[in-house]
Amino acid sequence: MFFTTSDGLKIAYRDQGSGVPILCLSGLTRNSTDFDYMTPHIQNARLIAMDYRGRGQSDFDSNFENYSIVREGQDAVELLDHLGLDSVGIIGTSRGGLIGMGLAAAAPERLRGVLMNDIGPVLEPDGLSAIMGFLGRRPKFKTYDEAAAALPKITTGFVDVPAARWQQEVRNRWEQRDDGLRLRYDPKLRDAIEAADHSVAPDMWPFFDELAGKPIALIRGENSDLLSRDTVTEMQKRRPDMICAEAKKRAHIPYLDEPESLDVINKFIKAIS
């Protein structure tokens, strides 16, 4: 399904299930397939997953500066308007969690609560460097099979991942063509990130604190290089009621079908229902 934003872009989204409405927001370079592993396990929830502009099946933006948390948050609100939803819970993976915190400040009345998947107010430099290592660059692999065979060797922190999962992952991330694998997002997303001023890291704790009074939850990958345990400890200090667990044998980002992840998700759904 699609809707059109206020600036004329066609945005793809999925809408399935029934119950409490939850908007699922994916990682920086990812799309609605981020939530394919979780969805079969979830009951009593209406899961709405959006492809950000420039990702998945959504239109690319001619102005890469619009690949921003602010504009993507606005798109999310416009999707809620399109669907006639006053408020939703958010399950935000990485970038999606940052958008969720941003909306807590910009449009708090639209949020029932936020679950953050391996993301918090502090982003670790090692994790950011790892993301910049591949952002906007076509993979060297020529086929899905070649990529699926290589990923377990070059992806650190993920243990005991079935071969079928790697096969699905490469299909979610890339498109196979005659000349090799292509990105499922606009390569200019790298330009947008590089254009941002990184000389001073923004203080995101005030955005986290805007979630006061709303249910919040956190899933951290046990081996995450983007979200540290120190940051989790501070989040728990500020919000002792935060539902929280580590997904074992996972790094950035958990797939959301791990037992620990599903336990947190189901508790979050109950809290916002």
From TrEMBL:
The protein's UniProt keywords, in alphabetical order, are: Hydrolase
User: Which SUPFAM superfamilies does the record associate with it?
Assistant: alpha/beta-Hydrolases
Keyword Hydrolase recorded: yes
One Pfam family hit? Abhydrolase_1
**UniProt entry tagged with the keyword Hydrolase:** yes
Q: Which GO terms describe its molecular function?
A: hydrolase activity
- The source's superkingdom equals Bacteria
> AB hydrolase-1 domain: which residues?
21-135
**Can you say what this protein is called?**
Hydrolase
Q: Which organism is it from?
A: Paramylibacter ulvae
